[in-house]
Amino acid sequence: MALIVQKYGGTSVGNIERIQNVAEKVIGWRERGHQIVVVVSAMSGETDRLIALAKAIASRPPPRELDVLLSTGEQVTIALLCIALEKHGCPARSYTGGQARILTDNAFNKARIQAIEADAMRADLDAGRVVVVAGFQGVDEDGNITTLGRGGSDTTGVALAAALKADECQIYTDVDGVYTTDPRVVPEARRLDRITFEEMLEMASAGSKVLQIRSVEFAGKHNVPLRVLSSFQDGPGTLITFEEALEAESMEKELISGIAFNRDEAKLTVLGVPDRPGIAFSILGPVSDANIEVDMIIQNIGRDGTTDFTFTVHRNDYERTLEILRQHAAQLGAREVSGDNRIAKLSLVGIGMRSHAGVASRMFEALAKEGINIRMISTSEIKISVVVDEKYLELGVRALHEAFELDKAA
Ligand code: ASP
Ligand code: MG
Protein backbone atom coordinates (compact mmCIF):
# COMPACT_ATOMS: atom_id res chain seq x y z
CA MET A 1 0.00 0.00 0.00
CA ALA A 2 1.28 3.42 -0.92
CA LEU A 3 0.25 6.96 -0.08
CA ILE A 4 -0.14 8.87 -3.32
CA VAL A 5 -0.89 12.55 -3.84
CA GLN A 6 -2.52 13.22 -7.21
CA LYS A 7 -2.93 16.69 -8.65
CA TYR A 8 -5.41 17.31 -11.48
CA GLY A 9 -5.10 20.56 -13.45
CA GLY A 10 -7.82 22.82 -14.83
CA THR A 11 -8.36 20.98 -18.13
CA SER A 12 -8.59 17.63 -16.32
CA VAL A 13 -11.55 18.99 -14.31
CA GLY A 14 -12.81 21.29 -17.08
CA ASN A 15 -16.41 20.05 -17.10
CA ILE A 16 -18.75 17.67 -15.25
CA GLU A 17 -17.89 14.72 -17.47
CA ARG A 18 -14.18 15.19 -16.84
CA ILE A 19 -14.71 15.54 -13.10
CA GLN A 20 -16.53 12.19 -13.19
CA ASN A 21 -13.67 10.75 -15.18
CA VAL A 22 -11.24 11.91 -12.47
CA ALA A 23 -13.48 10.31 -9.83
CA GLU A 24 -13.27 6.99 -11.67
CA LYS A 25 -9.49 7.21 -11.91
CA VAL A 26 -9.21 7.98 -8.20
CA ILE A 27 -11.50 5.06 -7.32
CA GLY A 28 -9.35 2.77 -9.49
CA TRP A 29 -6.21 3.74 -7.53
CA ARG A 30 -7.99 3.32 -4.21
CA GLU A 31 -9.25 -0.12 -5.18
CA ARG A 32 -5.66 -1.16 -5.79
CA GLY A 33 -5.18 -0.53 -2.06
CA HIS A 34 -3.58 2.90 -2.05
CA GLN A 35 -4.34 5.88 0.16
CA ILE A 36 -5.17 8.83 -2.07
CA VAL A 37 -4.98 12.57 -1.54
CA VAL A 38 -6.30 14.55 -4.50
CA VAL A 39 -5.44 18.19 -5.19
CA VAL A 40 -7.52 19.97 -7.82
CA SER A 41 -7.28 23.22 -9.74
CA ALA A 42 -10.23 25.37 -10.68
CA MET A 43 -12.15 24.30 -13.79
CA SER A 44 -10.22 25.54 -16.85
CA GLY A 45 -10.77 29.23 -17.58
CA GLU A 46 -12.36 29.83 -14.19
CA THR A 47 -9.45 31.69 -12.56
CA ASP A 48 -9.19 33.96 -15.61
CA ARG A 49 -12.95 34.56 -15.47
CA LEU A 50 -12.77 35.57 -11.81
CA ILE A 51 -9.83 37.90 -12.42
CA ALA A 52 -11.78 39.55 -15.26
CA LEU A 53 -14.77 40.10 -12.95
CA ALA A 54 -12.59 41.88 -10.40
CA LYS A 55 -10.84 43.95 -13.06
CA ALA A 56 -14.18 45.01 -14.50
CA ILE A 57 -14.62 46.90 -11.23
CA ALA A 58 -11.09 48.07 -10.45
CA SER A 59 -7.88 47.85 -12.44
CA ARG A 60 -5.96 47.01 -9.26
CA PRO A 61 -8.28 45.15 -6.88
CA PRO A 62 -7.18 44.93 -3.23
CA PRO A 63 -4.94 41.83 -3.07
CA ARG A 64 -6.72 40.39 -0.04
CA GLU A 65 -10.11 40.51 -1.74
CA LEU A 66 -8.70 39.11 -4.96
CA ASP A 67 -7.54 36.04 -3.02
CA VAL A 68 -10.97 35.61 -1.42
CA LEU A 69 -12.41 35.69 -4.93
CA LEU A 70 -9.86 33.44 -6.68
CA SER A 71 -9.97 30.77 -4.00
CA THR A 72 -13.61 30.07 -4.89
CA GLY A 73 -12.58 28.45 -8.19
CA GLU A 74 -10.89 25.54 -6.46
CA GLN A 75 -13.60 25.34 -3.81
CA VAL A 76 -16.11 24.49 -6.54
CA THR A 77 -14.02 21.60 -7.87
CA ILE A 78 -13.26 19.97 -4.50
CA ALA A 79 -16.99 19.81 -3.72
CA LEU A 80 -17.97 18.51 -7.17
CA LEU A 81 -15.27 15.84 -7.08
CA CYS A 82 -16.35 14.65 -3.63
CA ILE A 83 -19.97 14.53 -4.79
CA ALA A 84 -18.87 12.38 -7.75
CA LEU A 85 -16.78 10.08 -5.50
CA GLU A 86 -19.57 9.64 -2.94
CA LYS A 87 -22.07 8.90 -5.69
CA HIS A 88 -19.94 5.86 -6.57
CA GLY A 89 -19.83 4.79 -2.94
CA CYS A 90 -16.30 6.06 -2.34
CA PRO A 91 -16.01 7.88 0.98
CA ALA A 92 -14.40 11.27 0.44
CA ARG A 93 -13.98 14.58 2.21
CA SER A 94 -13.16 17.98 0.76
CA TYR A 95 -10.77 20.48 2.34
CA THR A 96 -10.26 24.14 1.48
CA GLY A 97 -6.68 25.36 1.95
CA GLY A 98 -7.59 26.71 5.38
CA GLN A 99 -9.31 23.49 6.44
CA ALA A 100 -6.26 21.52 5.29
CA ARG A 101 -4.20 23.83 7.56
CA ILE A 102 -1.95 24.92 4.71
CA LEU A 103 -0.27 27.79 6.51
CA THR A 104 1.31 30.52 4.40
CA ASP A 105 2.89 33.92 4.85
CA ASN A 106 0.65 36.93 4.22
CA ALA A 107 1.88 37.85 0.72
CA PHE A 108 -1.52 37.89 -0.97
CA ASN A 109 -1.57 36.65 -4.58
CA LYS A 110 1.88 35.05 -4.25
CA ALA A 111 1.95 33.51 -0.80
CA ARG A 112 4.48 30.87 0.20
CA ILE A 113 3.62 27.77 2.16
CA GLN A 114 5.32 27.71 5.57
CA ALA A 115 3.83 24.63 7.20
CA ILE A 116 1.03 22.10 6.87
CA GLU A 117 -0.73 20.59 9.88
CA ALA A 118 -1.79 17.29 8.39
CA ASP A 119 -3.36 15.46 11.36
CA ALA A 120 -6.99 15.79 10.25
CA MET A 121 -6.17 14.63 6.73
CA ARG A 122 -4.18 11.70 8.08
CA ALA A 123 -7.12 10.66 10.26
CA ASP A 124 -9.43 10.73 7.23
CA LEU A 125 -6.99 8.63 5.20
CA ASP A 126 -6.71 6.10 8.02
CA ALA A 127 -10.52 5.94 8.14
CA GLY A 128 -10.45 4.91 4.46
CA ARG A 129 -11.52 8.23 2.98
CA VAL A 130 -10.16 9.94 -0.09
CA VAL A 131 -8.99 13.42 0.88
CA VAL A 132 -9.67 16.14 -1.71
CA VAL A 133 -7.81 19.43 -1.22
CA ALA A 134 -8.25 22.77 -2.99
CA GLY A 135 -5.02 23.67 -4.77
CA PHE A 136 -3.45 27.12 -5.01
CA GLN A 137 -4.69 28.38 -1.61
CA GLY A 138 -3.81 28.57 2.04
CA VAL A 139 -4.40 30.65 5.10
CA ASP A 140 -2.13 33.12 6.91
CA GLU A 141 -1.67 33.30 10.68
CA ASP A 142 -4.55 35.77 11.02
CA GLY A 143 -6.92 33.47 9.17
CA ASN A 144 -6.89 35.41 5.89
CA ILE A 145 -7.29 33.38 2.70
CA THR A 146 -4.16 33.53 0.53
CA THR A 147 -3.31 32.20 -2.95
CA LEU A 148 0.03 30.92 -4.20
CA GLY A 149 0.39 32.53 -7.64
CA ARG A 150 -0.77 31.27 -11.03
CA GLY A 151 -0.22 27.57 -11.51
CA GLY A 152 0.10 27.21 -7.73
CA SER A 153 -1.84 23.95 -7.46
CA ASP A 154 1.28 22.05 -8.50
CA THR A 155 2.99 23.52 -5.45
CA THR A 156 0.07 22.52 -3.21
CA GLY A 157 0.36 18.94 -4.48
CA VAL A 158 4.08 18.75 -3.84
CA ALA A 159 3.87 20.44 -0.44
CA LEU A 160 1.16 18.01 0.68
CA ALA A 161 3.20 15.07 -0.58
CA ALA A 162 6.17 16.31 1.45
CA ALA A 163 4.10 16.93 4.59
CA LEU A 164 2.39 13.53 4.41
CA LYS A 165 5.63 11.79 3.35
CA ALA A 166 3.82 10.41 0.32
CA ASP A 167 5.46 7.74 -1.80
CA GLU A 168 4.84 9.71 -4.97
CA CYS A 169 3.29 12.96 -6.15
CA GLN A 170 1.50 12.50 -9.47
CA ILE A 171 0.77 15.59 -11.54
CA TYR A 172 -2.01 14.84 -14.04
CA THR A 173 -2.16 17.19 -16.98
CA ASP A 174 -3.09 17.28 -20.67
CA VAL A 175 0.24 15.90 -21.89
CA ASP A 176 1.39 12.37 -21.10
CA GLY A 177 4.80 13.28 -19.75
CA VAL A 178 7.94 15.32 -20.27
CA TYR A 179 9.23 15.21 -23.84
CA THR A 180 12.69 15.59 -25.34
CA THR A 181 11.32 18.81 -26.81
CA ASP A 182 7.97 20.35 -27.77
CA PRO A 183 6.27 17.82 -30.10
CA ARG A 184 4.58 20.70 -31.93
CA VAL A 185 8.01 21.71 -33.19
CA VAL A 186 9.54 18.25 -33.56
CA PRO A 187 6.96 15.52 -34.24
CA GLU A 188 9.62 12.86 -33.49
CA ALA A 189 10.02 14.16 -29.92
CA ARG A 190 10.01 11.29 -27.43
CA ARG A 191 8.47 10.97 -23.99
CA LEU A 192 11.15 10.48 -21.35
CA ASP A 193 10.64 7.68 -18.83
CA ARG A 194 12.80 9.49 -16.32
CA ILE A 195 14.53 12.80 -15.91
CA THR A 196 16.46 14.17 -12.93
CA PHE A 197 15.29 17.14 -10.87
CA GLU A 198 18.35 19.11 -11.93
CA GLU A 199 17.56 18.59 -15.60
CA MET A 200 13.88 19.38 -15.11
CA LEU A 201 14.75 22.67 -13.44
CA GLU A 202 17.07 23.63 -16.28
CA MET A 203 14.39 22.65 -18.81
CA ALA A 204 11.78 24.73 -16.98
CA SER A 205 14.02 27.78 -16.62
CA ALA A 206 14.88 27.52 -20.32
CA GLY A 207 11.25 27.60 -21.42
CA SER A 208 9.69 24.14 -21.01
CA LYS A 209 6.31 24.76 -19.39
CA VAL A 210 5.16 21.34 -18.20
CA LEU A 211 5.48 22.13 -14.48
CA GLN A 212 5.54 25.25 -12.35
CA ILE A 213 9.24 25.74 -11.57
CA ARG A 214 8.58 26.34 -7.86
CA SER A 215 6.93 22.97 -7.50
CA VAL A 216 9.94 21.22 -9.05
CA GLU A 217 12.30 23.04 -6.68
CA PHE A 218 10.14 22.18 -3.72
CA ALA A 219 9.92 18.50 -4.65
CA GLY A 220 13.67 18.27 -5.21
CA LYS A 221 14.40 19.89 -1.88
CA HIS A 222 12.01 17.65 0.04
CA ASN A 223 12.85 14.38 -1.71
CA VAL A 224 9.40 13.88 -3.21
CA PRO A 225 9.45 11.78 -6.38
CA LEU A 226 7.27 13.55 -8.95
CA ARG A 227 5.49 11.93 -11.88
CA VAL A 228 3.89 13.83 -14.76
CA LEU A 229 1.13 11.95 -16.55
CA SER A 230 -1.99 12.43 -18.65
CA SER A 231 -5.47 12.39 -17.21
CA PHE A 232 -6.86 11.49 -20.64
CA GLN A 233 -4.85 8.42 -21.53
CA ASP A 234 -3.25 5.65 -19.49
CA GLY A 235 0.51 5.39 -19.43
CA PRO A 236 3.53 5.55 -17.13
CA GLY A 237 4.22 9.26 -17.71
CA THR A 238 7.62 10.70 -16.77
CA LEU A 239 9.19 10.20 -13.36
CA ILE A 240 11.25 13.11 -12.09
CA THR A 241 13.78 11.63 -9.77
CA PHE A 242 17.24 11.84 -8.27
CA GLU A 243 20.51 11.06 -9.97
CA GLU A 244 21.35 8.70 -7.09
CA ALA A 245 18.12 6.79 -7.72
CA LEU A 246 19.09 6.29 -11.37
CA GLU A 247 22.54 5.14 -10.30
CA ALA A 248 21.08 2.75 -7.71
CA GLU A 249 19.01 1.10 -10.42
CA SER A 250 22.01 1.33 -12.77
CA MET A 251 19.83 3.01 -15.34
CA GLU A 252 21.59 4.23 -18.45
CA LYS A 253 22.09 8.00 -18.21
CA GLU A 254 21.24 9.79 -21.39
CA LEU A 255 23.85 12.22 -22.68
CA ILE A 256 21.21 14.81 -23.52
CA SER A 257 17.72 14.68 -22.04
CA GLY A 258 16.09 17.45 -23.94
CA ILE A 259 16.03 20.73 -25.79
CA ALA A 260 14.17 23.66 -24.29
CA PHE A 261 13.57 26.96 -26.03
CA ASN A 262 12.26 30.38 -25.31
CA ARG A 263 11.01 32.98 -27.76
CA ASP A 264 10.42 35.66 -25.17
CA GLU A 265 13.93 37.04 -25.30
CA ALA A 266 15.54 40.31 -26.28
CA LYS A 267 19.14 41.43 -26.27
CA LEU A 268 20.73 44.78 -25.67
CA THR A 269 24.24 45.97 -26.42
CA VAL A 270 26.15 48.91 -25.05
CA LEU A 271 28.92 49.71 -27.53
CA GLY A 272 32.25 51.38 -26.89
CA VAL A 273 32.18 51.77 -23.12
CA PRO A 274 35.47 52.46 -21.31
CA ASP A 275 37.05 49.16 -20.30
CA ARG A 276 37.54 49.78 -16.59
CA PRO A 277 36.60 48.14 -13.28
CA GLY A 278 32.99 48.68 -12.28
CA ILE A 279 31.63 49.04 -15.80
CA ALA A 280 29.40 45.93 -15.62
CA PHE A 281 27.95 47.20 -12.39
CA SER A 282 27.28 50.68 -13.73
CA ILE A 283 25.44 49.21 -16.74
CA LEU A 284 23.41 46.53 -14.92
CA GLY A 285 22.83 48.44 -11.66
CA PRO A 286 20.09 50.70 -13.03
CA VAL A 287 18.53 47.72 -14.84
CA SER A 288 18.30 45.67 -11.67
CA ASP A 289 17.06 48.73 -9.73
CA ALA A 290 14.11 48.70 -12.15
CA ASN A 291 13.48 45.05 -11.16
CA ILE A 292 14.36 43.76 -14.62
CA GLU A 293 15.84 40.31 -14.64
CA VAL A 294 18.96 39.78 -16.72
CA ASP A 295 19.72 36.36 -18.16
CA MET A 296 22.83 35.95 -20.34
CA ILE A 297 25.72 38.39 -20.24
CA ILE A 298 28.71 38.80 -22.54
CA GLN A 299 31.53 41.30 -22.43
CA ASN A 300 33.89 41.45 -25.38
CA ILE A 301 37.63 41.72 -25.02
CA GLY A 302 38.39 45.40 -24.98
CA ARG A 303 40.34 47.11 -27.74
CA ASP A 304 41.55 50.73 -27.71
CA GLY A 305 40.52 50.83 -24.07
CA THR A 306 36.85 50.30 -24.85
CA THR A 307 34.60 47.27 -24.76
CA ASP A 308 31.12 46.11 -25.87
CA PHE A 309 28.68 44.73 -23.33
CA THR A 310 25.67 42.59 -24.32
CA PHE A 311 22.93 41.00 -22.21
CA THR A 312 19.45 39.50 -22.58
CA VAL A 313 16.17 40.28 -20.83
CA HIS A 314 12.57 39.09 -21.17
CA ARG A 315 11.03 40.52 -24.33
CA ASN A 316 8.38 42.36 -22.29
CA ASP A 317 11.16 44.34 -20.60
CA TYR A 318 12.92 45.28 -23.84
CA GLU A 319 11.60 48.84 -24.36
CA ARG A 320 12.04 49.76 -20.73
CA THR A 321 15.61 48.43 -20.62
CA LEU A 322 16.50 50.27 -23.83
CA GLU A 323 15.19 53.48 -22.30
CA ILE A 324 17.19 52.99 -19.10
CA LEU A 325 20.40 52.33 -21.06
CA ARG A 326 19.84 55.39 -23.28
CA GLN A 327 19.33 57.56 -20.21
CA HIS A 328 22.64 56.37 -18.78
CA ALA A 329 24.64 56.16 -22.01
CA ALA A 330 26.34 59.54 -21.72
CA GLN A 331 27.24 59.00 -18.09
CA LEU A 332 28.67 55.54 -18.95
CA GLY A 333 30.74 57.08 -21.72
CA ALA A 334 29.13 54.67 -24.20
CA ARG A 335 29.36 55.28 -27.94
CA GLU A 336 26.03 53.67 -28.77
CA VAL A 337 23.20 51.55 -27.40
CA SER A 338 21.50 49.02 -29.65
CA GLY A 339 19.14 46.10 -29.28
CA ASP A 340 17.22 43.31 -30.95
CA ASN A 341 13.96 41.81 -29.74
CA ARG A 342 13.64 39.21 -32.48
CA ILE A 343 15.90 36.64 -30.88
CA ALA A 344 15.28 33.30 -29.24
CA LYS A 345 17.15 31.07 -26.82
CA LEU A 346 17.76 27.42 -27.39
CA SER A 347 19.15 25.14 -24.69
CA LEU A 348 20.53 21.64 -24.64
CA VAL A 349 20.09 19.97 -21.23
CA GLY A 350 21.59 16.75 -19.88
CA ILE A 351 23.48 15.49 -16.84
CA GLY A 352 25.49 13.30 -19.22
CA MET A 353 27.40 16.33 -20.48
CA ARG A 354 29.22 16.54 -17.13
CA SER A 355 31.22 13.49 -18.03
CA HIS A 356 31.37 13.83 -21.83
CA ALA A 357 33.48 16.30 -23.76
CA GLY A 358 32.50 17.50 -27.20
CA VAL A 359 28.82 18.20 -26.63
CA ALA A 360 29.23 21.92 -27.35
CA SER A 361 31.17 21.41 -30.57
CA ARG A 362 28.62 18.86 -31.79
CA MET A 363 25.90 21.40 -31.04
CA PHE A 364 27.68 24.23 -32.87
CA GLU A 365 28.42 21.98 -35.83
CA ALA A 366 24.75 21.02 -36.19
CA LEU A 367 23.69 24.67 -36.14
CA ALA A 368 26.44 25.69 -38.56
CA LYS A 369 25.33 23.03 -41.05
CA GLU A 370 21.96 24.77 -41.22
CA GLY A 371 23.60 28.17 -41.62
CA ILE A 372 22.34 29.35 -38.25
CA ASN A 373 24.43 32.11 -36.75
CA ILE A 374 24.98 31.90 -32.98
CA ARG A 375 24.76 35.33 -31.37
CA MET A 376 25.47 34.45 -27.75
CA ILE A 377 26.51 31.36 -25.80
CA SER A 378 26.28 30.49 -22.14
CA THR A 379 26.91 27.26 -20.30
CA SER A 380 26.31 25.62 -16.97
CA GLU A 381 27.43 22.19 -15.84
CA ILE A 382 24.44 20.48 -17.47
CA LYS A 383 23.18 23.05 -19.97
CA ILE A 384 24.41 24.86 -23.07
CA SER A 385 22.30 27.77 -24.27
CA VAL A 386 22.64 29.76 -27.47
CA VAL A 387 20.86 32.85 -28.70
CA VAL A 388 19.88 32.83 -32.38
CA ASP A 389 17.65 34.97 -34.61
CA GLU A 390 14.07 34.07 -33.83
CA LYS A 391 13.36 32.99 -37.40
CA TYR A 392 15.85 30.11 -37.02
CA LEU A 393 14.47 28.79 -33.76
CA GLU A 394 12.41 25.88 -35.06
CA LEU A 395 15.03 24.86 -37.60
CA GLY A 396 17.64 24.93 -34.83
CA VAL A 397 15.57 22.79 -32.47
CA ARG A 398 14.97 20.22 -35.22
CA ALA A 399 18.64 20.16 -36.24
CA LEU A 400 19.76 19.53 -32.64
CA HIS A 401 17.10 16.91 -32.01
CA GLU A 402 18.44 15.02 -35.00
CA ALA A 403 22.14 15.60 -34.31
CA PHE A 404 21.81 14.15 -30.80
CA GLU A 405 19.42 11.39 -31.95
CA LEU A 406 16.90 12.29 -29.31
CA ASP A 407 14.17 10.36 -31.12
CA LYS A 408 15.99 7.17 -30.06
CA ALA A 409 16.13 5.92 -26.49
CA ALA A 410 19.64 5.69 -24.98
N1 ASP B 1 -6.36 27.92 -10.73
C1 ASP B 1 -5.07 28.51 -10.54
C2 ASP B 1 -4.55 29.08 -11.87
O1 ASP B 1 -5.20 29.01 -12.86
C3 ASP B 1 -4.07 27.58 -9.97
C4 ASP B 1 -3.75 26.36 -10.79
O2 ASP B 1 -4.50 25.96 -11.67
O3 ASP B 1 -2.70 25.75 -10.54
O4 ASP B 1 -3.47 29.61 -11.89
MG1 MG C 1 -1.70 24.45 -14.14
Keywords:
2 domains; 35% helix; VC0802-like; binds aspartic acid; 410 residues; 27% strand; eight-stranded mixed β-sheet; six-stranded antiparallel β-sheet; alpha/beta
What is the gist of this entry?
The chain is of the alpha/beta class and 410 residues long. The chain starts with a strand and ends in a 7-residue tail after the last helix. It is built from 12 helices and 18 strands.
Characterization of this structure:
The chain is α/β, with parallel strands linked by helices. It folds into two domains: 3-249, Acetylglutamate kinase-like (Carbamate kinase), CATH 3.40.1160; 259-403, 2-Layer Sandwich (VC0802-like). It is 35% helix and 27% strand. The strands form four sheets. Strands 3-6-2-1-9-11-12-10 form an eight-stranded mixed β-sheet, sandwiched between helices. β7 (137-139) and β8 (145-147) form a beta hairpin. α9 runs antiparallel to α10 (318-332). The longest helix has 25 residues, at 63-87. Aspartic acid binds at residues 9-10, 41-42, 47, 73, 135-136, 150-153.
CATH class of the largest domain: Alpha Beta
* Overall pLDDT: 93
CATH architecture of the largest domain: 3-Layer(aba) Sandwich
Number of helices: 12
Spans of at least 5 consecutive residues whose pLDDT stays below 50 are none
CATH superfamily of the largest domain: Acetylglutamate kinase-like
Order of helices and strands: EHEHHEEEHEEEHEEHHEEHEHEEHEHEEH
Which structural class do you get from the secondary structure elements?
Answer: alpha/beta
Main sheet properties: 8 strands, mixed
Would you give the CATH topology of the largest domain? Carbamate kinase
Shape: globular
Strand content: 25-35%
Strands across the major sheet, in which order?
3-6-2-1-9-11-12-10
Number of domains: 2
How many DSSP E strands? 18
Bound molecules: aspartic acid, magnesium ion
- Helix content class: 25-40%
Distance between the termini: 32 Å
Rg over CA atoms: 24 Å
